[in-house]
Amino acid sequence: MTVASRPAWRRSGATVLSALTLVLMLISAVLIGTGGGSASAQTTTPTGTGPDAATSTTRAPVTKSRTQPEFLSLHIDDVTPTTVTTTTEPVVTVTGTVTNTGDRTVTDIGVRLQRAPAVDSSEELRTSLELDQGEFDTVGPFVPVADSLAEGERKQFTLSLPLRSLTGSSLDITEPGVYPLLVNVNGTPAYGGQARLDDARFLLPVLGLPHAAGASDSTPQASASASPTAPVPPDTSNPLAITMLWPIADAPQLAAGIPGSLNEKVRLVDDDLAGSLSKGGRLDQLLGAAEIATGSDMDRDHRLTDSMCLAVDPDLLITVSNMTRGYLVVDDPANPTGPAHDGVGRDAAAAWLERLETLARKMCITAVPFAQVDLAALSQVGDDVLTHSALESPADIVDSILGVTSLRDVTWPDAGVLDDASAKMLHGLGPTTTLLAANAVESTPSYGRTVTIAGGGGDAVDAALFDVSAAAALAAVGSDPQTPSYVPERARYNLDRDSRTARLQDALGAVTWLSLQGSGGTAASSSASRTSDRSMLIVPPQLWSADGNEASAVLSTVATLLRSGLATPRPLDKVAAERPATSEVAELAYPQRAIVDGTPESVEWGVGMQSPRIDEMKQALVEDPQVPLTPTRFMAPLREDLLRAMSLSGRRDQNTATATAAEQAAHTRVSAVAHAIDGMYASVTILAPGGVYTLASEQSPLLMVARNDLPVAITVQLQVDAPEGVRITDIGPQQLPPRGSRSLQVPAEISDSRTMVVDFSLTTESGQDLGEQTSVTVRSNAYGQALAIITACAGALLLFLAGRRLWHRFRGQPDRADEGYERQ
Questions:
Q1: 644 within 8 A of 668, measured Cβ to Cβ
Q2: What CA–CA distances, in Å, run from 767 to 32, 232, 762?
Q3: For the chain, which terminus, N or C, has the lower number of CB atoms within 10 Å?
Q4: Does pLDDT of 72 surpass 90?
Q5: Distance of CA 392 to the CA centre of its chain
Q6: How far is CA 408 from the centre of its chain?
């Protein structure tokens, strides 16, 4: 990265100053320069577009000279027209606001409009906005804004400059293209000299040139084509095939750790989604912009409709669908089962969902991975059931809720990149086309084309590539700008320095740039301009914070490309069906930034620990035809919570507080799932009988009671830890009814009369412990070995005495036992 250098100071007065005054000014300049501000003299660039102005299109090395303003802050409020065509006004008008953000008064404030050469590569769509001010070498005159602005004061201004003119100053734009523009503000801070105090940059897409400013509309058509003031249309001989994804997604909103149920209301972490779905909300405006742009009045030939595909997050659909039945909002997101209050978005959710169903019936719709899950983290966890829930189930969810048939075999990772493990994971799911950034592979073909990428272990998957700069510019649009992970470091900069209007202009320029590369304009020599079959994927971020006006501007620009002949629609299903033109396998390039922006290892570890426990519990649960709540429906929300914990939503936000909150929410979800599963296992237990259990005999059965507090039946296995002398017969698997108990008769054989302690517990059939262990004190009436010896001795004595008496009687001898008895 080149370190920015400050332009030299230039004195503005023509009168010779006194020595004392000169010294004071030099000291002030040094103090201002070392204060870290952006105050620097205006560049001695020729005013106007005459022969002295620089005309070379050779781009100098990028110099990132933009710093936070110290004295004045310049904000772009409006640009008209946003996209120049042959029918727009021939004058560019910029409205902005200058604010004194320093600690001193600034006087003699003026602004002017400057232009750099047209963008001639995709990368310059980003890097040209960081060029040094001197690179914007076509300049207009300064326009006064205010004589003075005190601390905290602001003043709005309007700048107008013709696109081209034969009689005066202009932007000197003579060919279609995308042009970087800069608004420069100069002023004189107290104790300092005249200096450039701030600037604002944006892109101006020029699809065609209207007649030059001052030209007569009555010029005959025949001669107008040869006139330097005549309109200049674009070259439409090689239209660009456009495919646009329209994201309908939101950050995970359902409270974590709440199992599925039949009648209980779902819980949300907050009620922001209600506002987003209501009139004027983000999701309401995104959907409304698509409805209007693809309506019969605006899109009569269905060209825009054919080029678009709704990309819907199934997690959002699940949440909104549940909201339509009433829902609760927890008071503390960290305590999802704690106090909660009724949400207010039930009606808004129902109305919005109905509108989405209507729109989905007339155009392409596809599902994105569940909750914008991080595919790299998902592959590291390596759970097949979790992978199925994240990548295969979403299409079924979309179809069942919206009543449509969504486009399958398309995977759009939120990160826009893949590592080898995630590519191999996708290959294991079967044929699929994944949408990746063009720099996600080592060798980059033309944008929009499909390539084969290595998938690990000799496997391979197909990928359709989208332009990095265009996608990055779209990600910067809206209230929460973000820089995607695939943007290279040399093209990253602080988006907060640009206003929403400027960021929207950058997006419009980036979206239109490739369509102009087939024209005879300034970028005709571009390497991307002479492909015989050109295509482009327009891919905003999945969680897009654009409002209705911004979304409509993007759609209107795409519609203009289609109507003008610069572009033609290419449906997403054709992209998915397209096979790579060559058999060459491209290697993946996974950026370090994607690791930084990705799911923390601690969250991956937590997900890897809890997912098998969910599977074990689900396997132990029993599906009862008489109970509507199935094991799958009961356990599904917990598995989905693990996917939400690995969501990339908010992790790339320009606001670091949002990224921190996203990471905290991920840990909260994993903890809540662990707590919920612990509660499930604790809800199935063996009840301890009170007192001492006395057996009537040595083979009397033990009677135990097993309790199931879960709403679903479960199969358990009784585990016994008995001391020596006690033999317990295994009673095999036992089924416990939902929210009920069952008596268990346990055959036991005890060969000892002493009091003993026998431990009982329940487990799943796979051996997972359930509930707590119960100890039973057992006392038997059996005497064991001693009783057997005594009984044997007594029996032997009885036989001896009986035998003796019979012997005496047989011999006729009187027995002493008969003495005292006389014969009658």
A1: no
A2: 73, 78, 9
A3: C
A4: yes
A5: 17
A6: 20
